[in-house]
Amino acid sequence: xxxxxxxxxxxxxxxxxxxxxxxxxxxxxxxxxxxxxxxxxxxxxxxxxxxxxxxxxxxxxxxxxxxxxxxxxxxxxxxxxxxxxxxxxxxxxxxxxxxxxxxxxxxxxxxxxxxxxxxxxxxxxxxxxxxxxxxxxxxxxxxxxxxxxxxxxxxxxxxxxxxxxxxxxxxxxxxxxxxxxxxxxxxxxxxxxxxxxxxxxxxxxxxxxxxxxxxxxxxxxxxxxxxxxxxxxxxxxxxxxxxxxxxxxxxxxxxxxxxxxxxxxxxxxxxxxxxxxxxxxxxxxxxxxxxxxxxxxxxxxxxxxxx
Length: 307
Prior knowledge:
By secondary structure, the chain is an alpha/beta fold.
């Protein structure tokens, strides 16, 4: 099913419509962070903890898209091979397909499939963590930001906007020097966020937690798993789940609207004689690209109005 989704097969869209009413029950966790902070190793350890609690766990590892094949590099999935024989664990690498926040619509579609198939916890590992990496917050109930000692400079954290998207901050590789200093900086910035009048996009009384882990040997991972589950319980107890679900559904709707509109436009461009004529005019210098694009868009609008 996920392969059909990634191939943009029309059958997948029809199947998703049938599956959608059966989804909406899973706890979705987003894990993001810069390359090299140990996200995959951390997720591997989290799977172990969640399985000890008898949760059925799925992981979508969103990798950068290959510029040659258009597919995803399977490095993340290879790091989690020890769970390969566990029937209650499903791990899938997916391509980011060049999306700004590291997530394509196919990621959300895959979440629907896994949710409908009864996976209780779905972890999404997304590419990078920078100024544009906010997409995960609109797809997950709980977002974990992974950093390492020496990389949690407070000013940069605010500049990147990560403070507004993170529910749990993880200082991984905390056996390295400056781990406590990194925790202190993050705690200080979270306190500043609470005391300031800064308008955040995710209005909640939840105070983000800062935890230290050493994913390589599992140190602190049990506490991290507990923190994610505590956040989910907090959302349920404070009637925030429906609010979050509405935001997620609206975001998905907008994503679908853009993608489906673009698909129709690309089909038009592929078969349109007008488009081919305009392309020839651009190549011959009769028309510039700006005027040409405006001309075709206006023609589309006129055609739609007449229809």
